[in-house]
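fyi for ur records
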Amino acid sequence: MSTTPTQTPNPTLAWVFDGDSVLCQEGVPHAITVDDLSCHDDVFTLSGHYLLTFTQIQSLGMALVGEFVPYRQLVATLTADMTCQFSTAIQLLTWQHTHRFCGVCGTPTQIANSEYAKVCPNCRHHSYPKIQPCVIVAITRKNPNTQKQQILLAKHHRHAHANMYGLIAGYVEVGESLENAVHREVLEETGLHIKNLHYLESQAWPYPTNLMLGFVAEYESGVLAPQADELADVQFFDLDNLPHIPNIGTIARRLIDLVCLQH
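which gave:
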């Protein structure tokens, strides 16, 4: 059983997850009542709730009422505290599933008693939840014909079915600074060079274990040349004529809204 030192678990309540989806009733996250699970050595707690997977619920022989709703659909309606809790929970459960064995000697790992860690009972190697840093950037320029303010938006293949346009984003590679990662991703995906790069804010994003680091920048030079295997389309849009963009609650939407407010 693992809990942070400052938490006081409630042994009767649990959030239930199926991958990145949360058990809800009528679209609202629903905590279920469970027996005391302190005797189980494979259950996390967070903010007074057990964190259970649908598989664990099945193994306990419990029936569920409700439906599983993807986190990305809930994020627009959750409080900041609940957003943090559910993002943390999904990432902890993902990490638990992917770190069942010691990366050094291959022995099955155990959950530590006083911290979020997996411990090898054989070689005592400790592993901790992995965070993948990603950069995301809102790029602006003046419309060369009308001088209206524009923002660069891209339609990724994974969002083509929804015809949704978002921002340029990508993983930080080994040995890179955040700034270098932004410049590289923009050049690789669009063929453009940028300037006046500034960091704004971050967001934990459990797909699967990302930390999104948000930037704004200005177009400097280059001709749009979308990376075919990543993007279905990329173009500059006037701020008063935007296409379908990401949902409220995502850092992409916050960056886009911020650019619109500033201009």
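The chain has a mean pLDDT of 91. thats all i got for now
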